[in-house]
Write a structure and sequence with these properties.
single chain; about 600 residues; alpha/beta; Rossmann fold; Helicase, Ruva Protein, domain 3; 4 domains; six-stranded mixed sheet; five-stranded mixed sheet; about 50% helix; binds adenosine-5'-diphosphate; binds magnesium ion; binds zinc ion; ATP-dependent zinc metalloprotease FtsH; ATP binding
Length: about 600
């Protein structure tokens, strides 16, 4: 639109210039212009020496050598004109009359150009309009094309399997895929069917995208990369046409890999949407299914996809012939974490005494992305301290930063608030310390961090995959301990404990409805969680139990929480002097490390497993 206005403006200026030019051209001949009557009287009084006829102009030279110009009607011969005015032949005898063709320039300027210019301008205008429409048009044509990008095979950012630490099984599986692409004959000769689709599953940050890029780097075939959300536009039908275009491109450049990242954006279970536009998503998904079926045995194209929500995927995507290979990326265990740290430490100068093993030990539950982020934070912290080499303190500090968000030292607590926070965190820590099945306390702080006013950091001493009911109830007790300590000391609670309470309640509910850990309700789950597509969260829970059971569940949750609270309260009551000591230390130092804490409370006794 802006363009159009600009063009119109330019036309206007050009037009003005041209017309100015012409008016100055035609006005440039400086002769006396006189009327026809004057000429007649001059002829009658024998003053005229010669008349030159040039088009519609009569150039008159008088006997005193002055010149003048007279205009006459176009197409009227001079003799007729003179006759009309009653000028007779003899008066003209002494006058030299000459008829000239119009001069070239004059002819063009006066006759041709006035006709041509409007045409030119109109033609120009139409040309511009067309060009603009064409521009818009070609964009509209691009709309249905997939926006898949091709990873460059040689570029600087080439990723190989070496850059992916851990994830052994996943790498094995994918190496096979690379083999399929490189030596299809080896497999087809044995009658093996080349896998169509490989689905990478894993929580966010476990390296799905990274692994896919590594496959691209290793296979040395074109790698078309698109994100699931890029299929879906505001306009109906675009998604499906993009899918068609993507697969067409892939078939043209076979052997090749298509990678659809975050496929859950289009691959959700069909028929689960709220509004109307889920139709579009479904069409897109259908088109993917159709295209994947459309490959024949010899097409050497493999479709990879990644998601962290396999539970919401449409079952049709997962059946044999489509994404039948599923590669699961687990949260890294301690050895993997060390390996990932090593990969990311390659380009960073680390002090000699840095133990990445120790960092790995302290980062249970971190994903690959968290670990990469940790090393980056450590490097930033080191730079900020004007040091040249990353050392252990920076690494350890970065663990907490990644886990809990940055410290907010600027938030000043009043002495009273500080005291309340100290008792709250002290309560969490002391209860965690005296319960046998909880993770040991690593750090306590009353400095605000992220959204928390203070925090107590517990870290598991080893990776855990299974947990039992005792561990869960003890965890609930620890969560409640903060508020209970406040109550024990001040007789009143503050607003600082809402998230503790919410987490405790959620945990208690899951124990009963998901884990079958309730005595009276038995071994079953309650509630079918159904995803509501547009609201994004599991807000809709289908009840598969009666009203009476619902009451029972509520009662069980309450009793679980009561029990845990009782346990926590007992500990706080019995170890009041320990709590006071911890609070005293917190008021002075604000942050207690593991050894400082244990100097006060003693070594933690851990239940024998
Ligand atoms: P997602 O699974 O969410 O797609 P990404 O593949 O995008 O995760 O991983 C994010 C970042 O985390 C990567 O760029 C990489 O730096 C790091 N990362 C994750 N897993 C690994 C791993 N196994 N080895 C090395 N780096 C990893
Ligand atoms: Mg990803
Ligand atoms: Zn708390």
């Amino acid at each position: 639109m802006k363009n159009l206005f600009r063009n119109i403006f330019i036309f206007f200026v050009v037009f003005l210039l041209v017309s100015l030019l012409f008016s100055s051209l035609s006005g440039s001949k400086k002769s006396n212009a006189v009327g026809i009557e004057k000429l007649i009287s001059q002829i009658n009084s024998q003053e005229v020496q010669s008349i030159v006829v040039e088009g519609n102009e009569l150039k008159i030279t008088l006997k005193d050598n002055s010149t003048e110009v007279v205009k006459k009607e176009a197409g009227q011969p001079l003799s007729e004109l003179l006759n009309n005015f009653g000028v007779t032949g003899e008066k003209l005898n002494n006058i030299k009359i000459e008829v000239k063709d119009e001069s070239g320039v004059n002819f063009w300027v006066n006759t041709v150009l006035p006709f041509v210019i409007p045409f030119l301008i109109i033609a120009f205008f139409i040309y511009f309009m067309l060009r603009q429409v064409q521009g818009a048009n070609s964009k509209a044509m691009m709309f249905g094309q997939s926006q898949a990008r091709e990873f460059s095979k040689e570029g600087k950012e080439k990723v190989s399997f070496k850059d992916v630490a851990g994830a052994k099984e996943a790498k094995e599986e994918l190496k096979e895929v690379v083999d399929f692409l490189k030596f299809p004959k080896k497999f087809t000769d044995l009658g093996a069917r080349i896998p169509r689709g490989v689905l990478l599953l894993g929580s966010p940050g476990t390296g799905k995208t990274l692994l896919a890029r590594a496959v691209a780097g290793e296979a040395n075939v074109p790698f078309l990369n698109i994100s699931g959300s890029e299929f879906v536009e505001m306009f109906v039908g675009v998604g499906a046409s993009r899918v068609r275009d993507l697969f067409k491109r892939a078939k043209k450049s076979a052997p090749c890999i298509i990678f659809i990242d975050e496929i859950d954006a289009v691959g959700r279970r069909r028929g689960a949407g709220l509004g109307g536009s889920h139709d579009e998503r479904e069409q897109t998904l259908n088109q993917i299914l159709v295209e994947m079926d459309g490959f024949d045995q010899t097409t050497n194209v493999i479709v990879m996809a990644a998601t962290n929500r396999p539970d919401v995927l449409d079952p049709a995507l997962l059946r044999p012939g489509r994404f039948d290979r599923q590669v699961v990326l687990d949260e890294p265990d301690i050895a993997d974490r060390e390996a990932i740290l090593k990969v990311h430490a390659r380009k960073k100068p680390l002090a000699k005494d840095v133990s990445l093993r120790l960092v790995a030990e302290r980062t249970a539950g971190f994903s690959g992305a968290d670990l990469a982020n940790l090393l980056n934070e450590a490097a930033i912290l080191t730079a900020r301290r004007n040091k040249k080499i990353i050392d252990m303190p920076e690494l350890l500090e970065s663990i907490e930063k990644v886990m809990l968000g940055p410290e907010r030292k600027s938030r000043v607590l009043s002495e009273k608030e500080k005291k309340i926070t100290a008792y709250h965190e002290g309560g969490h820590a002391v209860v965690a310390h005296f319960l046998p099945n909880t993770d040991p306390v690593h750090k306590i702080s009353i400095i605000a961090r992220g959204r928390a006013g203070g925090y107590t950091l517990k870290l598991p001493s080893e990776d855990k995959h299974l947990r039992n009911k005792t561990e869960f109830t003890e965890e609930i007790a620890v969560l409640l301990a903060g508020q209970l300590a406040e109550k024990e000391i001040f007789g009143e609670v503050t607003t600082g404990a809402t998230s503790d309470l919410r987490r405790a309640t959620q945990l208690a509910r899951r124990l009963i409805t998901d884990f079958g850990m309730s005595k009276s309700l038995g071994l079953r789950t309650f509630g079918e969680k159904e995803e509501m597509v547009f609201l994004g969260k599991e807000i809709h829970e289908q009840r598969d139990y009666s009203e009476k059971t619902a009451e029972q569940i509520d009662a069980e949750i309450s009793s679980l929480i009561d029990q845990a609270a009782h346990q926590a309260q007992g500990i706080i009551h019995n170890h009041r002097e320990v709590l006071e000591k911890v609070v005293g230390a917190l008021m002075i130092k604000e942050t207690l490390e593991k050894d400082e804490f244990e100097a006060i409370v003693g070594q933690k006794e851990i239940a024998k497993g």
